[in-house]
Amino acid sequence: MDSTPSPSSSSSSPFDLVSSALERNLPRGGAGAVAGPADVQGDRTTRQGVPDNPAEGRQDQILGAVGLDRDLRITRCNLDTPVFAGLDAGAGSPFVDLLPPGDVPTVTRRLRQVLETGEAHVARIQRLRRGDGSELVVSMSILPAAGPQEGLTVSLIAMATRLHLYAAETAIGTSLDIGETAQSLAQSLLAWGDVAAVDLDYAVWSGEGITGQGQGRIRLRRAALVPDRAWPEGYVTPGDDLPSDASRLLAQAVRRDDAPQAIVIPDREAVERVFGNPQVTRALVPGDRSAGVACIPLVLDGAPPVVLGVAEVWRRADRPFRDSELFDLQELVARTAHHVDLARQHQREHTQVLALQRRLLPRTGGDTIEIASVYQPATPDSAGVGGDWVNSFPLPDGRTALVVGDVVGHGLGAAATMGQLSMEARALLSAGLAPDEVLEHLDETVTQLDDAESGLAAGYSALGSTCCIALYDPVSHQVALSSAGHLPPVLVSPDGHASPLAVRPHPGLGAEFALREPFGVHTFGTPPGSLLALYTDGLVEDPAMSIDEGIGRLVDAVSVVHPWDALQQAARRVVSALAPARQRDDVTLLLARMIGYRKGDTMTWRLPARDDAPARARARVSALLRQWRTADDTLDNVLLLVSELVTNAVRFAAGPITVRVIRAGDGLLCEVGDTGNGRPRLSRGGLLDEGGRGLHIVHRLTTRWGVRWTDTGKVVWAEVAK
């Protein structure tokens, strides 16, 4: 079955490279010459005595190569070693004729994919059919030819039992996704049968803790099934729960005498007799021919041992399982059970961290701002859910805080730091601190978390984490923003012009004391209809382009979001356009559409700090509230409140006084600003005490009140219900 490579083939083509590994030269014939049907027949007659596993005695001759054209027909082959005897690889015949019928769709799809993408498909376990009906297990790699029109080279390595066990264990341990781990195990088990399935205890599938083998745990879920084909109606496929009777029977079967052990049901009659239920038989038996099954428990060693699930290998009744095959199956499953448990633990951690991430996501906006957010976690088989976090919340004084951060690292360590920083930022912002002051506190927190005792000794460091804080004032229609090493937000004006904000770069949180820089505050206008996009680097980073190009793609994507678009749908469109379905880092996007207060819902006055200021403030506020048709009792409360706040400002502060009244939803918000830096505090004194009497009145009249700090002093705000 030798052939000659075509003249157009390069000496370094994949086919020639594989053939040279056989340490022999191919005969040179006409271009594209291959062995004809007569040669194949000759091979079949001279090699009738094919051993059960010929590769065991010929480990140095288990490699072969097959060349295919773009129609997936064989052009030439190099399968001269005895292990490949009986394979009908004739010139011009379809390569899929070498496959079991059930494997044809999957392998054809892989072949076409390599043709289209030029990316090799390496080392997958595959069965090939011999002319006498027996099967050969190989490791098959699909390689693109040197030229785009030259087709493919299929490399085949016959799998000796020991080699297959080693290759299977190596392949199964490469993913931390529990579904992919189970699928890899099922792919490896297919070498011993026609159909392989892995059914896991539901607690394992969902990542729950496994501490023992309870008698009531009989719920199994199908985690993997091979080959990929159309299955009859009623058959259990991945993601489906097995019928309760089947779960109970399998659980009992693999725990006979209270010890996990493999069982074999040899034929369909025995299967039907064991299950005793046509529905269960229809759910578990893959077809008429595949009637015998070997069930091998996935056991986690311990005292007592814990059964994670059951691996099932089905094959024809005329091919009974030999004792040596059962031993190999048990060895493979035993070697890989711990990989399933590692994937379960990773799934559990992934679920816990993801729940924390979801908890921090913004719930809703308000009357003055519309908010939408998308969080897309890293794929489960990556290093774990990252430390990206995003939050938005209304502040008591009517402003809205928008916060996004990216904590270094992945997993529970990053999640714990993320939760601590997020809650600390919210508390400090609610207390009235400016965004740059909040970042100063977060900077110190990261430094303390990373000290030798609590940080580095635990194997985790949060140094270099980033954060961006934006405070939106719906009255002035301005945003005050501070950033600690975070990527610049993108602002879209009402006319559709979009650009990243020119935010001063910063090294991030936790920098060495000598390298620390003050956090600046960037203030910019956001007229009603403006759109602000805050995000983490997972959305714009791509190995194929620079970070500036990634930000440019984001700018283009958000610039086409129209003011009448549903904001949540627009956020999903932006993420799907920029971020791949599977990524190694978390993706976070927060879109905020500024609405603000209408001009007629706010009024501001500046008064000199004189003794007549309280009376002047009462007169102006009274006229405004009557214009707003405020109820008399509410009007009286507001006038008394404004009088007390202005009196305190005149008495304890200096400079001009600012009075502002806002009509917001179901209440009125009153603000009095001054140039003083003292913090008003509610003392334990009573109403008759001279000191602090005004604040007690404020406390009794309002639903809530507080203080926020400005560059020139402070603002005392108070909310009154209508």
Textual characterization of the structure:
With 722 residues, the protein is α+β, with helices and mostly antiparallel strands. The protein has 17 helices and 25 strands. It has a five-stranded antiparallel β-sheet with strand order 2-1-5-4-3, with helices on both faces. The protein has a five-stranded antiparallel β-sheet with strand order 7-6-10-9-8. A five-stranded antiparallel β-sheet has the order 11-20-19-16-17, covered by helices on one side. The longest helix is centred in the middle third of the chain and has 38 residues, at 323-360.
How far apart the termini lie comes to 93 Å
Tally of individual helices: 17
Low-confidence stretches: 1-11, 23-60, 452-458, 686-690
The share of residues in extended strands comes to 15-25%
Question: What order do the strands of the largest sheet run in, or round the barrel if closed?
Answer: 2-1-5-4-3
Radius of gyration: 36 Å
Shape: elongated
Main attributes of the structure:
elongated, alpha+beta, 722 residues, disordered N terminus, five-stranded antiparallel beta sheet
Compose a concise summary of this entry.
The protein is α+β, with helices and mostly antiparallel strands and 722 residues long. It has 17 helices and 25 strands. Helix content is 31%, strand content 25%.
Map the helices and strands.
Layout: H1 14-20, H2 37-46, E1 63-68, E2 74-78, H3 104-117, E3 121-129, E4 135-144, E5 152-158, H4 161-172, H5 178-189, E6 195-201, H6 202-205, E7 220-226, H7 244-253, E8 263-265, H8 268-275, H9 278-284, E9 290-300, E10 306-316, H10 323-360, E11 369-376, E12 386-394, E13 400-410, H11 412-430, H12 435-449, E14 466-473, E15 478-484, E16 490-492, E17 498-500, E18 522-525, E19 531-535, H13 547-559, H14 567-578, E20 587-594, E21 602-607, H15 613-627, H16 632-652, E22 657-664, E23 667-674, H17 693-701, E24 704-709, E25 714-721
Antiparallel strand pairs: 1-2, 1-5, 3-4, 4-5, 6-7, 6-10, 8-9, 9-10, 11-20, 12-13, 13-14, 14-15, 15-18, 16-17, 16-19, 19-20, 21-22, 22-23, 23-25, 24-25
